[in-house]
Amino acid sequence: MNSNITKEMNFRFPPIALIKTDTKPDDAVSPKPGKGGCVMAFVARTIAKRETTCFGRENITCGGISSGFGWGTGFKDEEALDFQATFLSCGVESAPDREEYEKKLEYFKKNTRKMFKEGERIFTDFKTAKENIKSRPIYDSEDYVVFKGMENLEEEETPESVIFTVNAVELTALIQINSSFRTRDSYVLTPQASACQAIGNFTFQQAESDDPKPILGPVDFAGKYKMKHFIPSEYLTLSMPWKLFLKLEEISEKSVLQTELWKKYKN
Prior knowledge:
By secondary structure, this protein is of the alpha+beta class. It contains 13 helices and 6 strands. The chain has helices at residues 4-9, 40-49, 63-68, 78-88, 98-105, 110-118, 126-134, 168-179, 195-198, 201-207, 221-227, 242-252, 260-266, and strands at 16-21, 53-56, 144-149, 161-166, 215-217, 236-241. The protein has a 6-stranded antiparallel beta sheet. The longest helix is centred in the middle third of the chain and has 12 residues, at 168-179.
């Protein structure tokens, strides 16, 4: 697809598309079944190396990713939810049953065990974490989520969303274009969510809105760390529903991108 925003801004990392499908592409790179881990290293490969990557229900082991990519809540029971709420807050310090939590960690590898003991600390305490987890937007639809460069989109493909990977100047320009037609309310959202959820279910939720907003991320250092081999740490993602991307494409043709001031930054 030819994108005016991409042409005008000349990104180091051009935008990528997220596609929901029930068919796994033959040429896509995927985690091995049962070896899911964090998906953001794979997404970063699409961003930086333009490789098509694909994730399915069968190769996801993280409940957060399951909800992020639209495969239910990701929890088989309340105990599993409590475990993640403990991890996303202060680990052992937040555990409702410290002894039971530490017992589960005995089966983890040393480095992973240390991370789970101290917690990811996205939320201040167990109760806050659990309330936030339970309020995530939940979907349960197609079996696969595919990421590919916008330039590799097939004519018959309609993405669910578009993900920009931007530095501070590029983000400033996109925010200005996104804000240029609005008159009130928040223009960019930053939910306290994992990187995969920011580009996944929180963006899916905006697609249902009559006035969709882009989602800025990642705000979790775990996801950011998984991307750093491919993407410098100063870069952020800005994810938006397909219909918002098309609107910004149209607006961009008569925007700050045609000004002399922008050219000074571009060059």
